[in-house]
Amino acid sequence: MLQAVxxxxxxxxxxxxxxxxxxxxxxxxxxxxxxxxxxxSALPRDMDFTPLMTLYLTEDTDPSDVANAHxxxxxxxxxxxxxxxxxxxxxxxxxxxxxxxxxxxxxxxxMPLCVHGEVTNDxxxxxxxxxxxxxxxxxxxxxxxxxxxxxxxHVTTKDAVDYVRDNHKRxxxxxxxxxxxxxxxxxxxxxxxxxxxxxxxxxxxxxxxALVQAAISGDERFFLGTxxxxxxxxxxxxxxxxxxxxxxxxxxxxxxxxxxxxxxLKKLEAFTSLNGPKFYGLPANEATIxxxxxxxxxxxxxxxxxxxxxxxxxxxxxxxxxxVT
Length: 325
Known about the structure:
Blueprint: H1 2-10, E1 15-18, H2 29-42, E2 50-56, H3 63-71, E3 77-80, H4 100-109, E4 113-116, H5 129-144, E5 150-153, H6 158-166, E6 171-175, H7 184-188, H8 205-216, E7 222-224, H9 233-236, H10 251-261, H11 268-280, E8 291-293, E9 302-303, E10 310-311, E11 321-323
Parallel strand pairs: 1-2, 2-3, 3-4, 4-5, 5-6, 6-7
Antiparallel strand pairs: 8-11, 9-10
């Protein structure tokens, strides 16, 4: 799988925040180092790509190991998954007080916390879980550890956009390619579309519009996080299918289309390439890519892997922008 999909990311992206929710999860500095080595071994020789590793936060995570991983350049961030929130999140956090020593250490060293912002309570509607997470989990965490840098990953609601806008210090959010394009009608209307099913699940059109407005605004607290997830078709098309959308192949074309339609092409570079590094304290990439508008460009509908085909995200409209260099 890694050998099949890694080139799809490395073709247009110089680096990526790498999620740690493998089986087993990437919890320690040693495991992150081993995963990074596997990535680099699978990278084609003609591609230049830097994986930015993250550690999976558990209630047993060692603050010293996290600090050492950050100091040694092994881990760029720590990822918080509420237990049961998404793919391979069973080892995630249930009692947030137990991870407070880790969060305090991260605040001391300036290491960002990336959060999957959803609660998992059975009595909370799946479309409300992001908003409830902000009130019940994120606000208390930030009140107890106010100096912690936080990235709300793959936000899906106006609630999250408004929260980030109201919190100017040490707060940012990523927005995925697909959440800028699809709403929950795309998933459910006229028949279930498994390849549009992701977590957090797509929301109402009003929320999608709020995400677009945040992305094209130029506000440096919002930046791209594709959350590109390569699940095979057999894993997606079953009674209990996997959540995730694979968009690495055509993300730049999709984003250029969204920004072009909004008349905000000049804001595309900041959203994709500048705001994220600035928040993480990293230099911007020196290399560039060039996009050109013309006749519709086509992408493979599937990426073949040894485990089965992976469907590439279909935005549902023609893409006129292509990466030419």
